Amino acid sequence: MAALLSNLLGALALGCADLQHVAMGRAAGLGAAELAALLAVFTRPGSTIGEVASTTALTHSGAVRVTDRLAAAGLVKRREGRDRRTVTLRCTAAGRERAEHALAARRAALGALVATLPSADAATLRRLAARLLARLPADRAEARRICRLCEHAVCRGTDCPVGSAVS
Fold first, then answer.
1. Three-state SS for 48?
2. I want to staple 133 with a disulfide (CB 3.0 to 4.6 A). Which of 46, 92, 102, 161 is the partner?
3. pLDDT per position in the chain (167 positions), as tens?
4. What is each CA distance from 13 to 10, 47, 132, 156, in whole angstroms?
5. In the chain, what are the domains?
6. Quick one: 63 exposed, middle or buried, by C-beta within 10 A (0-12, 13-18, 19+)?
7. Dmax of the chain from CA atoms?
């Protein structure tokens, strides 16, 4: 029973990840790394390259290359940081628009899947997902990685089981 449940959960997680990546990638016209970096900057304007690297699980040099591509595409802009050794990142209007399109596509794709459940099952899934998500992050950096593709306005504060687990 536990082996079957583990298999089902793993397959569900991958299936949902694939579903959202395809929907978001099409909506934004970006690859997975670029999309994750764009959303990291969209969610936390003024992020540094190091913060983007941590959120996206990229190396520092990988985050530099990804943000270079986003800047070249006109989706993010760089600003000198407070200590002049760091660079902060902000989305341009085009970057914000792409991020919003990607998040709307994610909501639609996953929402269509959840809409196939009876409302009582959807409520049960919500409770179980929140309970499991609360057990995943060990620290704030892991919480940001787990929620890197989330609509942060949807679950804030105590509504977010991931963030609440490390607060």
1. strand
2. 161
3. 789 999 999 999 999 999 999 999 999 999 999 999 999 999 999 999 999 999 999 999 999 999 999 999 999 999 987 777 888 999 999 999 999 999 999 999 999 999 999 999 999 999 999 999 999 999 999 999 999 999 988 988 888 999 999 97
4. 5, 28, 12, 22
5. 20-116 (1.10.10.10)
6. buried
7. 56
